[in-house]
Amino acid sequence: MAFSGLDIYKLLPKTNCRECGFVTCLAFAMQLAKKAVSIDKCPYLSEEAKRVLEASSQPPIKLVNIGEGDNKLEVGNETVLFRHEEKFYHPTAVGFIIEDSLSVDEIKHRLERINKLKFERVGQELNVNLVAVRHTSDKKKFIEAIQTVLNNTPLALVLMSDEPEALKEALKITAQRRPLIYHATKDNAGQFSKLAQEFKVPVVASSSDLETLSGLTRELNNQGVNDIILDTGVKPVKDKIWDLTQERRQALKKSNRSLGYPTLVIIDAKDPYEEVMEAATYISKYASIVLMRGIEAWQVLSLLTLRQNIYTDPQKPLQIEPKLYSVGAVSSKSPVLVTTNFSLTYYTVLGEVEASKVPSYIVSVDTEGMSVLTAWAAEKFTPEKISDSINKFVVKDTVSHMRLIIPGYVAVMSGDLEDKSGWQVVVGPKEASGIPSFLKNL
């Protein structure tokens, strides 16, 4: 449980020596409570106090790493139940299950499609994260499937087998990729903990019952395994949501360390629409990893878009750099459109300008990531702001005309903008969808 500043102060030497950089021990304690400084700043802290403070500073949900290098995946370390309290930090990992019963060519074909599941939205690249190999046939086929996956994708791996011996053989060829092994139960916890320690990999702890799962994680901890992912098995959606919510609540509100780990969900739905809806539900609340079979682009794009929306900071909208952008083979006669630096607004305008095939300039005004009407209402998208941006980006030296196109929703500012900027103001369409025909007829 996190300590308050006064709780921490009671553990400090109270010498006010200032060697930590603060005037008093109390001031240092307050900064420690905010996690703004490290306990190492105090040279006179006793070993017992250091141990207590280090234990209290551990995150309520452990951060677990899967994979290595550019494709290393981090899950866990969340601090709130609701994103309006504070942002969620580590987006749900989306992965795909490959059965080892498939032929090598079928596996390669699936991997080729999975590797292409990359999308760009509002200036961000959206990617999938994992490939899980499920052991459904003999050990030889399992190892062969894993080798094929290793050779054909850089994504992080999940090794799914109930046979510790098969997993050990698989780990001999995959340990350098730090895969996640699935799954330890109360019956095989000893064998899985040995594998996890020998190959230094994280492990999934699995039980349908939260109390049993809690006991299982404590047993794994006692055996030296701390990188754990929780799984309560395949259940109806409402039961699964209950498990995920209780795990999160127990960790954050009850300081239950035995359930303070990231979570994994396997989607077992056969219908592709049901599969994607179920996956979306778990991304919303509160899965750390979602494994599914469907690899259609329409399924994955919808899930990655949802994930992007959930895992952005609600207090800091997605923004682009405020500057003058060129679209197409622009010239000094190209029209100049003005909009805000809210990513969704800018990329919507950009798409419509590209669709018009009219080379144009777009001035992105710094509105602190607000959309047009929101920024106008908050006085962040004003004639003064637009005039300053035009001057800052030296638009006058870029084009031979003095004509600006502003969004139709802020037509009311056109006269004032002309007075302050000295430019002729043309009122454009209210909706971005009207830009192509507007530019063609300009």
Architecture overview:
There is one protein chain. The protein is an alpha/beta fold. It has 3 domains: 53 residues, Orthogonal Bundle (3-methyladenine DNA Glycosylase II, Chain A, domain 3), CATH 1.10.15; 247 residues, TIM Barrel; 117 residues, Rossmann fold, CATH 3.40.50. 40% of the residues lie in helices and 17% in strands. It contains 16 helices and 17 strands. The strands form 4 sheets. Strands 10-9-8-7-6-3-12-11 form an 8-stranded parallel sheet. A 5-stranded mixed sheet has the order 13-15-14-16-17, sandwiched between helices. Strands 1-2 form a two-stranded antiparallel sheet. It is globular, with a radius of gyration of 27 Å. The N and C termini lie far apart (64 Å). The relative contact order is 0.08. The model has no long low-confidence stretch (mean pLDDT 94).
What are the defining features of this structure?
TIM Barrel, eight-stranded parallel beta sheet, 17 strands, Rossmann fold, 3-methyladenine DNA Glycosylase II, Chain A, domain 3, 3 domains, alpha/beta, 442 residues, 16 helices, five-stranded mixed beta sheet, 17% strand
